[in-house]
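Researcher: Let's run the pair from yesterday's discussion. Sequence first, then tokens, for each.
Model: Starting with the first of the pair.
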Amino acid sequence: MDMLAFEKEAWNSGLFFVAGVDEAGRGPLAGPVVAAAVVFEREPLAGGEAFAGLTDSKALTERKRELFFEQLMACPFAHTAFSVIEPSEIDSINILQATWKAMAESLSGLDRLPDLALVDGSPVRGLPCDSKNIIKGDAKSLSIAAASVIAKVTRDRLMLELDKKHPEYGFAAHKGYGTKMHLKAIREHGPLDCHRKTFRPISELNQGELF
């Protein structure tokens, strides 16, 4: 598969600043949702050999994700930006709106607004530029794959910081997802500010119910 097929289609139509956008952290019970945007410059990227093997962050090992993250952040022809939406805002506007906001902010944080944003998954409203959604785009577009890695690694590092503050919750292991370990910790110690109070079963705790 040509991981630059969608980028080349846009480039050939005269759209040169083409971003890939993806998010990490929609499903967890704790921590932020993070979105990232990446634009590769057309000529230096050439055939994409510089990032051979880069794909959906979920399909990469942690070590590979970290290596690609460092390469992307140091790459002179990769423009990157990310946005972090905290749990309190997720609870206020809901996770879908928070995800869309993070994606919009990451695009606005680039050197300039893209001519086109390639978005992983379903269509996104409220973006500051034209967009094209691609189902499973993080495995089909190099730009989206790069964004998925930056979003995932950025969020994981934030969860590691939370783990240092609250080691009894095990955030380093589960990254905020609703594992048995995490649910047990919530039952024993109660929810923290970093927990999403509108997500079940934490919302049930707030109503005085047990889970």
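Model: Moving on to the second of the pair.
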Amino acid sequence: MQVSVETTSALERQMTITVPAERIESDVDKRVQQTARTARLDGFRPGKVPLKVVKKRYGAGIRQDVLGEVIQQSFYEAVQQEKIVPAGSPQIEFKNDKDGEDFAFVATFEVYPEVELADFSAAEVEKQTSSVTDADIEQMVDTLRKQQADWTAVERAAQDGDRVNIDFEGFVDGEAFEGGKAEGHDLVLGSGSMIPGFEDGLVGAEVGADVELNVNFPEEYHAEELKGKAAVFKVKVNTVSEPVLPELDKAFFEKFGLEANDVESFQAEVRSNMERELKNALKMKLKDQVFSKLVELNAIEVPSALVDTEIDALRRQAVQQFGGGQDLDPNMLPKEMFEDQAKRRVTVGLLVQEVVKAAEITADEARVRETVEELAETYQEPQQVIDWYYGNEEMLNQVKSLVMEDQVVDHLLSSAKVNEVAVAYEEAIKPAQQNNGAE
């Protein structure tokens, strides 16, 4: 077998592989003999069809099957020989596949980039710290009560927090627009579910009132034709209802799957859940910052094959999240929707691998165990969940990967300049992009 490699770009390689005709013909002959043992043709007994007849009848198909297998085997042997690690599958183009002549093909593929990690001591990272206060717990309990509130109709002007039932129609430049009309629509004032100014304009309105609202669509509104446009909404108020909050009793506690018997134990459970959420939020923000700095300091070109694979994964994930199931083909979602996110994920993945290799990081088994136990503690039978993880190699490896990411973060932070900033609970649990626009 002859192999030659040409570098066509920073990451692309073209490998020409030539396989001796003798190997192809030998493999074809073996496959013809195997086929002859089971071939059934009119005029011949099973297994007695002459090889010449079998080759004439099935030879072309057999040869194509053999060439497919030879391509796989010889490509694998060639990259091993040349010490090349392909990133993704190759594109194959036949160069010569004539009978009796050496078989030659060209494999075009990408390789992983060579990375020389920059000194991370140049990075400056903000590390948020926070804690759950009694006031935070009171606010959370109040939020949970509002979620379970009943509504009672009132004969007074609408206030912030009330629910109004309305009919409305919107106009831009005097013309009604698509999607701007509804009847019998329930709206909680102050919920922020409508465009700015809409809900505020209904505070003070009474049942039966006709209200005209002059508002502006946000510049970043999802409908292109409405972005930044001034609009007039004509609104009819049908009913005004105020919330009636439920009592803090066992029936209320059970709605959240908690076994609390009194307010104090309920608040303790709420605190535990909030502290778990806070810990995870702070950890994810710090990790996002560290990885963003890692990408910023190490500009690398990433293989498009890996980006395309990640785009496909993000498409499938999006379909599952929106309940598309089998009804929506993930490939219908535009590639551009996921391209930046996919490229960043691939970049981070490659750089993290380099850090792992350079620092010789291996998964800390004690941290793996601690992570599994943290995942299990939210279930009724934690030990069963722990046993399940340790009995499922695939799931345990996912946990190990997460732990190794945490270890990479710790390793990088050990050399970076870290500025601790204390923030309130509500600020701490906001997703990173809401705070600083991080990806």
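Researcher: Give me one sentence on the second I can quote.
Model: The chain has three domains: 2-111, 120-132+253-436, 150-244.
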